Amino acid sequence: MRVCVVGCGAVGSLFAAHLAGVAEVWAYDLRRDHVDAINQGGLRISGVSDLVAKVRATAAPEEIPPCEYGIVATKSMHTEAAIAATASVFEDGAVCSVQNGVGNEELIAPHVARVIRGTTFPAGHLVEPGHVEQDTGGKTWIGPFEPKPAAMEEVKRLAGALSEGGMETIAMPDSRGAQWTKLIFNAASNPVGALTGLPHGWACERPDIRELVRGLVAEGRAVADALGVELDSDPDDLIDHATQVAHDHKASMLQDVEARRPTEVDFLNGGISRFGRERGVETPLNDALWALVKGLEQSWSRQEQR
Amino acid sequence: MTIERVCVVGAGTIGSLYAGHLARVADVTVLTRRRAQAAALNESGLQVSGKSELRARVTASHEPEGIDDVDLAIVACKAVDLPTTAERLEGRFRRAAVMTVQNGLGAEEVVRLHGEWPLISAVTFMSGTRRSDTHVEYELDTATWMGPYMGGGPPYETVRELESLLIAGGLEAEAMPDLRPAQWSKLIFNSAVNGVAALTDLPHVRAFAEEQEFSDLGHLLRGLIDEGKAVAAAAGIELHDDPWEMNVRAVTHGETLRSDYAHIPSMLADVRARRPTEVDYISGALAREGERLGVPAPLNTAIYRLVKAREASWR
Question: Are B202 and A197 an interchain contact pair (Cβ–Cβ within 8 Å)?
Fold first, then answer.
């Protein structure tokens, strides 16, 4: 099996390193120092997992041979450019998104033969070029992406390889439930952190914010219902669980905002809003937080005399 | 009633603008919070520059007991300081009318807890920048609108007299028999513009009126303003100005003069300085009124909650 991981940041590295035990793994990434470090010393994972994997990394798509599978793990705003650049690698491949939010598979589909919808919970952060610390474990769910589906056998084979490599992955005919559960959780908790500056538990222990989060979840749930998606767990329970176990955790969107990096809000609240409109479901709170986070992003580029 | 002696309570930007201009036409005393500012004002007077150029002599004290009786007191502190400021006025100025100029709703009710003065409701659109304890820059020479408080105000003639006095002093002013239509127009405008500015770190830029996409800020502003208008309608208020039109005017006016100019709403200034904001009196007041009247205002409520949580992040 030959696999190319597109976007070898924290999450991409977890997939690349674990798969390298059972497959030939290529990694496409634009960070030169990261690419060079992986090629020289291997890709190192520490923390929840501990391994050094042989992965062939490059920033030049033409160096990558045709692959049976792709795993796209870029930040959502880079999906389009990354898959367009690597399209020739997947002319007969099945490409799986393991990114946040909704809308990535739709961007991948025009460029590749077949698409797999994925949702993953393991997370980590880049410590230095070639080295990722894995902060949390957890499962990955994958399934055919309907408009341009990979065969179920193909999905199962990828799940088997990932599980064998050490990342527990479940293949299912319809993986939207997992995706929408995580989407609704993220779209309710991330922008609230980004706009208030509060870590998850600090925000959600406040009755007023918990009420706002409940409203955001309810809108997401209504859109999922209209799409016929059955959630695999209650996002409100996940919010309360995270308040207990990740009390002081700063949402990734808050980390982006503090570093003044573009956020993934277009694929979170923006995704809920777009799918809602398609189905005639109004999502005023998600629209509002989408606009506020986009406004915050705009403020960084504004030259202002203070 | 003849207004000859005025006490301005709170010598921030707005208070200083009233005090400086009124000193041309009345005896003006200033009640400050800090002793040092009172001393500085007594020593060097009050300077206004910008739209007006003047130096005024005022008598200042940081203690209510140090101020003689007056015909009118203008309470010009920020809304967040109003409860403590009003408490200091208890038992003072027995023959005076008291005017509140705070943003939002609810200032009159707070003052009423501490005395039976005839109250004048007011909203002011003028703005400026504090240069020092004794110097304020007058930037926007827009009007103060005022009217007798519906829960117990002076005769309308007194408000008309105050209008004349402010105009004679060099300020813009307009008396109205019922201020609520203007007060609510500004409340709805402020809840949208100040809240969005505070949360996005954006001054009042043109994007606040752009509404092509769902993710455009103007789309959100429109939603906030429509909610506010529904609450106002349920309260029986016929708005003086359309808040959306106020929003559009403000962004086009600002940017035609200088392409990089945009007003920094006070709530954004408060957030940048990590000061408590007036959101309880603005978005919070609108949300509470909506709840009271059975007209939900979920977007204004969301803004209120987010700003309150943002304030909590500094502690």
Answer: no
Q: Which of A284, A296, A303 lies nearest to residue B200, judging by beta carbons?
A: A296
Distance CA A177, CA A189 (A): 18
CA nearest to B202 within chain A: A299
Name residue, tokens 């479940």: A170
Tell me how far the alpha carbon of residue B11 is from its chain's centroid.
Answer: 13
Is there a contact between A292 and B196 if contact means CB atoms under 8 Å apart? yes
Interval A245-295: pLDDT, tens: 889 988 989 999 999 999 999 999 999 999 999 999 999 999 999 999 999
Reported pTM: 0.90
- Indicate yes or no: CB of B199 within 8 angstroms of CB of A270: no
Cβ–Cβ < 8 Å for A115, A95: yes
Q: Taking CB atoms and an 8 Å cutoff, what residues of chain B touch A287?
A: 214-215, 219-220, 223
Q: How do residues B167-192 score in pLDDT, each as one tens digit?
A: 999 999 999 999 999 999 999 999 99
**A291–B217 CB contact, under 8 Å:** yes
How much is the CA Rg of chain B, to the nearest whole Å? 19
pLDDT band at B251 (very low <50, low <70, confident <90, very high): confident
Residue A179 pLDDT class (50, 70, 90 cuts): very high
Residues of B with Cβ-Cβ distance to A258 under 8 angstroms = none
Pick left, alpha or beta for residue A15 (phi over 0 → left; psi -120 to 50 → alpha; otherwise beta). Answer: alpha
Distance of alpha carbon B214 from alpha carbon B223, whole angstroms: 11
Residues with Cβ < 8 Å from A209, sequence gap 6 or more? A192, A196, A198, A203, B305, B306, B309
Instruction: Give the strand order in the sheet containing B135-140.
Output: B54-56, B46-50, B135-140, B127-132
Rounded distance between C-alpha atoms, residue A263 and residue B192, angstroms? 24
Answer whether residue B220 shows pLDDT above 90.
Answer: yes
Which of B29-63 are b and which e, b meaning 16 or more Cβ less than 10 Å from the residue's Cβ?
bbbbbeeebbebbeeebbbbeebbebebebbbbbe
Q: Is B52 left (phi over 0), alpha (psi -120 to 50) or beta?
A: beta
| Residues of chain B with C-beta less than 8 angstroms from the C-beta of A260 | none
Token pair for A174? 């319809």
